[in-house]
Amino acid sequence: MKRCLVPRRPGWEARVEAEGMLWHTTGGVPYWNEGVAYHFSTEDIDAIDEATAACHRMALEAVEAIITAKELPSYGYDTDAIRLIEHSWQTRERDIYGRIDFAYDGSAPPKMLEYNADTPTSLLEAAVVQWSWLTDTHGPDATHQYNDLHTALVERMRALKRDRDDGLLGARQRSAPLHVSCVFPHDEDTGTVAYIESVAREAGIEVVFVPIDSIGFSPADGGTFVDEADQPIRLLFKLYPWDWLLADDYGPHLTDAVLKSRIRLFEPAWKMLMANKLLMVRMRKMNPDSPYLLDTARSDQPFRTANRPFVRKPTLGREGQNVDLFAPGAATAIEHTDGNYADNTFIYQAFADLFRDEASGTYALIGSWVIDGEPQGMGIRESDRAITDDRSRFVPHSFDPAPTSSSE
Amino acid sequence: MVTHNATKAYQSRYKAEVNRRRARQAAMLAGTVSVLAMLGACDSPQSSAPTPTTEQMLVYKTLDECKAAQADDKLCETAFAEAWGWQGQQTGYSEKGRCEAEYGEGHCESRATASGGSWFVPLMAGVMLSNRMNNMSYDSYRRERERDGHSGAYPVYVNRRGDVSTYAGSGMRPLGYSLTSSGLPSRMDVEADPSGRGYVAKGTSDSRYRASSRGGFGKSSTMRGGCCG
Predict the structure, then answer these.
(1) Nearest to A110 by CA among A384, A364, A319
(2) Using one digit for the tens of pLDDT, what is the confidence trace for A15-26?
(3) ipTM of this predicted complex?
C-alpha cells in the first residue's frame, strides 16, 4: 500500500460533475482529490476483502445473538425500536448495502473501526467516480481496481424488483414505485440518493424522489405516508438514520406503518443495530481472537488498567464527531473532535494506527463496501488528522499493475 | 457464506464484466434522474401537489381504426408503438394464472425478460391518445411529446368485469369506464397520473391519500446537522 502523486485529468471537475458528483470541492478545497492515488498489492486487496467478509459475518452473528437473548434494551432501544428490529430480523428483511471502515497500514490485518450499516455515503465516489478515473487514466480496459460496486448494486436492485413483483415485499408493495428520500437540499446526500435512483432505474424500478421533510401522512388505509403528489409511499429508500426517523414526530406513525406492512424501508430496521457502535463490544466478546477486531468495551477501565492508548466514540455518532484519542495514562484527550453527539453513550476502543504517509503526513482510511451481504469494493479517504471526519478527502485507488507515476 | 479470496478471480471477473459495465454506466449517465433534476432546477422543492386537470382521451381498438380517424398515419404508428413500449416497462404478473384470473383466460400474453425468464401482461384492448393531439401532423405530435411528457399514447385493458384500465406511473389503474354494448368507449375523460406518466380515473389521482400533515420527519437533522457518512 502506497500513496502516489498523480496528475489530475484536465477538466476533471466537469467530468465528475457529469457523473453526478456536485460536491467535489468544499470551501475551495477538493473533497474528490485525484491528484493522489493509492496503490495496493493483490495481497492487500485480498486481506481487505477477507476482513470485510469476516466482519460482516461477525456483525450478523452479533445481531442474531443480541436479538435471541432479548438484550436489545441494553443497546439503548425503546419498545418501538425493539419491535421494529425484531420484526425486520425475524422476517429476514433483506438489506442493500453498508460500509465497514478499516484501519489498514499494508502489513497488519485490517482492523474494523465501525460499520456504517444504516446510512453510508461516499457510494457514488467509490462506485462510479473512481472507476471512470481508472479507465480515463489507464485506458478503457483497465480493471485493476477493487470495485465491483455498480454491478453489484444493479444486481441487488434487480433482486429487489423481483421480490417486489412476486409480492415478497408485501401486497401493497407489489407494483409500487421506489421512493428515495434524504435531507434536501444537501449536495452530498442528494447526490448519493440520485445514484441509488439511477441504479434502481437501471434495474427497471420506477423511482420517485421526496425530500425527507416533505413526506406527508394520510390517515387513509390506517395511516399511510405520502409523497409530494399525495401518492402513497410503499417502498422507501431513506438516506436518513433509523434512530432519527423514530425520534422525529412521525416516529410512532412509522412504527405502526412498518409493522403492518403499509411501508417497507431500506435499509431494514435491524441495520440500525448493526450501525450501533455498541455492537462492536458484543462482536469482540464473541470473537476474542479475531485479527480484524479491536478490543472494544463500554468502559475505559480495561484500557486504563492495561495502560493502553484508546479511542472514545459516541455509539450513534457520525462523520467522526465527538471522537477523543487518549494516550496511555493521559487523563485528557490528545486529539478530539467536537460535534452534536455529546449526549450519546460512548464506547472505548483500542487505538489502531491508520496508514500514514510519512512524506506528506497524511492518514488514510479504508471504506470497504458490503452489497447484498458480499464484499464488493472499496474507497479511500485521506485526512490530515488521525480522526477521519467530513473534511477528509476521497482519493482513487488501483492495485497491480503499478500506475506509471511518481511515488511521493 | 461465499468465500472470497484470490484477486486473480476479481481480475478475470472484471475483464468479463467490463464491457457490460461500460454500457451500463453510459446508460446510467444518460438516464434522467429526478433527484438531480430537482437540484438543477432550484433550491426549493415543489411544495404543493399539482391540481389534477381533466383530459379527454380518444380510444382506438386497432391501428387501422386510428389511421382511419387521424390525419397522419405515422402519428398512429408512433402512438401504438409508444403504448406497446410502455406496457413493456410494466411490472406485470410473474404467473400467467394470476393475470388470467383478472383478465380472463387467453387474455394474457408473456413477455421475455433479458435474463431469459418471462412475465405476463394483459392483452392490449386498445390505445388511448390525448384529444389535444387530435389530427396533429406527426411532427407536431413529436414536438408536443417532447414539450410535455404527459401527452402521448397509453395502452388500455379490459378485465373480466368489463372495467377499462391502464398502466399509469403508479401501476395498473382503473379509468372509471366500462365496456359498453358497442365495445370500448370511444372517448374517456381522465386525469393525468401525478407520477407524470399515464392517466387515471377522474377524481382518483390524489383523493385517496391526501396528506393530513407534512414535515413530521427531518427535525433530527436540524438538531444533529449532516446525517450520513
Answers:
(1) A364
(2) 998 888 888 998
(3) 0.93
Q: Do A46 and B5 touch (CB under 8 A)?
A: yes
Q: Per-residue confidence at B1, pLDDT binned at 50, 70, 90?
A: very low
Instruction: Note the maximum CA span of chain B.
Output: 69
Report CA-CA distances (Å) from A380 to A78, A102, A377, B134: 36, 10, 11, 57
Q: Which of A95, A87, A109 is nearest to A160 (CA)?
A: A95
pLDDT of the residue at A186: 85
Torsion angle, alpha carbons of A253, A259, A261, A262, to 10: -10
pTM for this entry: 0.74
B228 CB neighbours in chain A (<8 A) are: 119-121, 182, 188-189, 192, 239-241, 318
Residue of B nearest to A57 (CA): B1
Asked whether the predicted pLDDT for residue B42 surpasses 50, the reply is no
β-sheet bridge partners, residue A32: A394
| Rounded-to-integer distance, Cα A38 and Cα A16, Å | 19
Backbone φ/ψ region at A271: left (φ over 0), alpha (ψ -120 to 50), beta: alpha
Query: Bridge-partner residues for A397, per DSSP?
Result: A38
* pLDDT tens, position by position, A176-203: 899 999 998 888 898 899 999 999 988 9
Q: Determine contact, residues B226/A390, Cβ cutoff 8 Å.
A: yes
Predicted pLDDT of residue A390: 77
CB contact under 8 A, A230 and B194: yes
Give the integer Cα–Cα distance in Å for B229 and A394.
Answer: 12
Q: Is the dihedral of CA B100, B103, B104, B105 positive or negative?
A: negative
pLDDT, average across residues A116-121: 96
Which carries the bigger pLDDT value, residue A385 or residue A252?
Answer: A252
Q: Rounded to whole angstroms, how far apart are CA atoms A213 and A228?
A: 10
Q: And the C-alpha cell for B202? A: 377522474
Contact A191, A394 (CB under 8 A): no
CA distance B69 to chain A (A): 34
What per-residue confidence (pLDDT) applies to B151? Answer: 58
Question: Which of B46, B209, B214, B223 is the best mutation test for A, with the most CBs of A within 10 A?
Answer: B209
Could you tell me where the DSSP H helices lie in A119-239?
A: 123-124, 130-138, 149-165, 187-202
* Diameter over CA atoms, chain A: 64
